TrEMBL record:
Protein name: uroporphyrinogen-III C-methyltransferase
Superkingdom to which the source organism belongs: Bacteria
CDD domains hit by this protein: SUMT
NCBIfam families: cobA_cysG_Cterm, PRK06136.1
InterPro entries attached to this UniProt entry: 4pyrrol_Mease, 4pyrrol_Methylase_sf, 4pyrrole_Mease_sub1, 4pyrrole_Mease_sub2, CobA/CysG_C, Siro_Cobalamin_biosynth, Uropor_MeTrfase_CS
Residue span, Tetrapyrrole methylase domain: 18-228
Keyword terms, alphabetized: Methyltransferase, Porphyrin biosynthesis, S-adenosyl-L-methionine, Transferase
Gene, per the UniProt record: cobA
Family: Belongs to the precorrin methyltransferase family.
One example of a Gene Ontology biological process annotation: methylation
Enzyme nomenclature, EC number: 2.1.1.107
Record keyword Hydrolase present: no
């Protein structure tokens, strides 16, 4: 390996390999160095709709790009077909990147892809990415935990497998817990109702963070009681997530104090 090269290529492979790569929350500057190397080395890239155009622009210009278009309730290809496509490309000797928003093993079905590849004897690696909850909260200035009001954080999804039973919202209703909901826009009304039914106050602060870490970022603030109305009125679009808990109010308080000092 030549230490003068910033992104040296690995030795040629006899067979193909797959890298499950996390693209992070949107800002290309938040990619890991390893993710950037894999994009530069790729011969085939299967990517999701939520991956930012600025990140796609960093892919090897000679690579073949295949959009597999996964969003909640909107899939260009069924998951089984994506698994088979990964297998075919790897078995053909290609250096394949499966590029997924956020972290590949958090709410992105990366675990299913990893299992299918391992079962077929394919060489596979996982390249972690900054998950949306961490990236979005940081970009909005919201601490997911704080010793005064949030001793824990739950990451849950508002979109579940067809036929799956409902989430145990009672486990996420503690007042000293931050709840971050992925893919929750379409279920915002029921999420708010479930949390309130299990003891969370209607005045619990909520932030809706849209297009986090990008120039298009928008942060909407409301409460559990007004969440459904806020989503209906403001019509936020994916990718967006919900941050629920007292840390949202704490962050707003800090911003207000900073604005007063600046006057």
């Amino acid at each position: 390996m030549n230490p003068a090269l910033p992104f040296p290529h690995p030795a040629p492979l006899h067979g193909g390999q797959v890298s499950l790569v996390g693209a992070g929350p949107g800002d290309p500057d938040l990619l890991t160095l390893k993710a950037l190397r894999r994009l530069a080395e790729a011969e085939v890239v299967l990517y999701d709709l939520l991956v930012a155009e600025e990140i796609l622009a960093l892919i090897n210009k000679r690579a073949r790009l295949i959009c597999v278009g996964k969003r909640a309730s909107r899939h260009t290809l069924p998951q089984q077909e994506i698994n088979q496509l990964l297998l075919r490309e790897a078995q053909a000797g290609q250096r394949v990147v499966r590029l997924k928003g956020g972290d590949p093993l958090l709410f992105g079905r990366g675990g299913e892809e990893l299992a299918a590849l391992l079962a077929a004897g394919i060489e596979v690696e996982v390249v972690p990415g900054i998950t949306a909850a961490v990236g979005a909260a940081a970009a909005a200035g919201i601490p997911l935990t704080h010793r005064d009001c949030a001793q824990g954080v739950s990451l849950v999804t508002g979109h579940r497998r067809d036929g799956a039973s409902g989430l145990d919202w009672a486990a996420h209703s503690g007042s000293e817990q931050t709840v971050v909901v992925y893919m929750g826009l379409g279920e915002a009304a029921s999420i708010a109702a479930e949390l309130q039914a299990h003891g969370r106050h209607g005045d619990t602060p909520v932030a809706i963070i849209e297009q986090a870490t990008t120039p298009r970022q928008r942060v909407l603030r409301c409460t559990l009681a007004t969440l459904a109305a806020c989503v209906a009125r403001e019509a936020p679009q994916p990718p967006a997530l919900l941050v629920i808990g007292e840390v949202v109010a704490l962050a707003a308080q800090w911003r207000q104090q900073a604005a007063c000092l600046a006057e």
